[in-house]
Amino acid sequence: xxxxxxxxxxxxxxxxxxxxxxxxxxxxxxxxxxxxxxxxxxxxxxxxxxxxxxxxxxxxxxxxxxxxxxxxxxxxxxxxxxxxxxxxxxxxxxxxxxxxxxxxxxxxxxxxxxxxxxxxxxxxxxxxxxxxxxxxxxxxxxxxxxxxxxxxxxxxxxxxxxxxxxxxxxxxxxxxxxxxxxxxxxxxxxxxxxxxxxxxxxxxxxxxxxxxxxxxxxxxxxxxxxxxxxxxxxxxxxxxxxxxxxxxxxxxxxxxxxxxxxxxxxxxxxxxxxxxxxxxxxxxxxxxxxxxxxxxxxxxxxxxxxxxxxxxxxxxxxxxxxxxxxxxxxxxxxxxxxxxxxxxxxxxxxxxxxxxxxxxxxxxxxxxxxxxxxxxxxxxxxxxxxx
Length: 387
Fold this sequence. Notes:
Blueprint: E1 11-16, H1 21-34, E2 61-67, H2 73-82, H3 90-93, H4 95-103, E3 105-107, H5 117-134, E4 138-143, H6 160-167, H7 176-186, E5 190-193, H8 203-212, E6 215-218, H9 225-238, E7 242-252, H10 254-260, H11 263-280, E8 289-293, E9 300-310, E10 316-326, H12 327-347, E11 352-353, H13 372-383
Helix pairs in contact: 1-2, 1-12, 5-7, 6-8, 7-8, 9-11
């Protein structure tokens, strides 16, 4: 996973939450596809439309990251085999790739008292060391940590100078996920927020990205229920069918289910889910999304949606759908897509929020378009512009 690429610059991938289920699936999947042991199913950037986009080959991505747990990636891969997420023969075939990535995972930073400026400097130092030791041209940092509550308002969040002063003060200012975003941008890395935690919605961090000259994108990867909504809701709008109500229930297992059992964390997820319908449908719609933890589901999730709508002459009708999927297997290929695409954006000198990547997110930053097909067309048009 660390060989010199034959067709482009070296691209590093630094994952926050690098020992989690999604991150482990990312590393296993990239190595398996590169070795010809698995097809690139789910990887948008492996479609023929992107063949000439100049993206870094999957086998030339160099992985590293941080996590607060110390379970080796090989062990995590075995656990995913037991859960039915990873094919049984892959971990043994990919030992070298897993070991190489595992060596690059550092202890994560949690909530702690005291000044955060030294913590940010330490994270930036880890990123610089990762870049230099592997001779990387660019590094993309991806937030795959557990969903965190939105940061409480703070005067320092609106201005970069004020934020830097506050970080040097005696008390913590940023939650850990936002501190990582601050350090990553300051180290000149591209940043992908695959969670709904919302660090990059802080104006001070947007200002930092623009002042350093690096791109970022997010937020909250669109993997299941909202993916269906972004394809289905335009159908009602285009056929002049009035949606009266759209309710959803999500049953989640694993770490994601446990995290979202916390109402403050679930609020971030619910907000990103709800925003898409507001943008997709012409009239206000009654509805809520309920998220329930079901530990027995493990890494799997089920979403059930009930849609009430009016047809001609006010005839009332309903539609229901059930989505059952493996969260890690749905998310991992999108992470690989975003890393490769943001690496291309960095090569083009892109700065600040990148709205052309809205296709991948429930609540895309910098874009109001939520319809899946127009999002794809915008992404494709961007990839076809010369480097």
